[in-house]
Amino acid sequence: MRHNNKINHLGRKSAHRGSMLANMASSLILEKRIITTTAKAKALRLFVEPMITRSKDDSTNSRRVVFAQLRNKYAVSELFREVSQKVANRPGGYTRIIKLGLRAGDNADMCMMELVDYNDTYTNGKKAAKATKTTRRGGKKKAEAPALEAPAAEEAPKAE
After folding, report:
1. In sequence order, what are the beta bridge partners of 111?
2. What is residue 69's three-state secondary structure?
3. 6 assigned to some structural domain
4. 21: exposed, middle or buried (Cβ count in 10 Å: 0-12, 13-18, 19+)
5. Domain for residue 141, yes or no?
6. Is 115 helix (H, G, I), strand (E, B) or coil?
7. Taken in order 81, 82, 85, 88, is the CA torsion positive or negative?
8. Which of 4, 12, 116, 154 would staple 16 via disulfide (CB 3.0–4.6 Å)?
9. 64 in any annotated domain
10. Which positions ≥6 away from 138 have C-beta within 8 Å?
């Protein structure tokens, strides 16, 4: 029985699978976009997203933990320098999987996996607005009231 065994083994032993995921994660971080099978992309998402979250805290321990998983110093420096700056205010969901269809040779389901903040096609070149926390206590009414009074105060000196 496979109770509590949710990991996709991808037809590989543990060491081979770990090396493959580390190489794919390094390629994703360095190139920002890779083309792979859907099963590998879903396994890679579980591997790379916690590392991106850890990269937000640029400490020596975080770098060591990420380097132990990636084993590529260029990918680690890219992750902590540029990628972590782009995803600083994103709470999760750093990768996107776009299905491409079937591969001609073996009919495998192919997809393109990319880092979300590096594709301007879906954001139309606009920078995403910072999400604001909203509550249901009528905070909008208080915020709008001073805005309405300020223009009225500016119009009075113009009339003089």
Report:
1. 36, 99
2. helix
3. no
4. buried
5. no
6. strand
7. negative
8. 12
9. yes
10. none
Q: What percent of the chain has pLDDT over 70?
A: 77
The helix/strand/coil state of 117 is helix
SS3 of 49-82: the string is HHHHHHHCCCCHHHHHHHHHHHCCHHHHHHHHHH
For residue 127, the model assigns a pLDDT of 58
Task: Give the per-residue pLDDT at 5.
Answer: 87
Tokens of 48: 């790379």
Residue 143: per-residue pLDDT: 54
Q: Are strands 33-37 and 109-115 parallel, antiparallel or unpaired?
A: antiparallel
Structure tokens at 149: 């009074």
pLDDT at 139: 58
Whole-model pTM: value is 0.75
Share of the chain above pLDDT 90, in %: 71
> Which CATH number do you get for residue 97?
3.90.1030.10
Question: In this structure, what token pair is assigned to residue 13?
Answer: 């032993």
- Domains contained in the chain, number: 1
Predicted local confidence at residue 146, as pLDDT: 56
Q: What is the enclosing helix (H) or strand (E) of 158?
A: helix 139-159
Range of the domain at 21: 14-130
How buried is residue 7: exposed, middle or buried, by Cβ count under 10 Å (0-12/13-18/19+)?
A: exposed
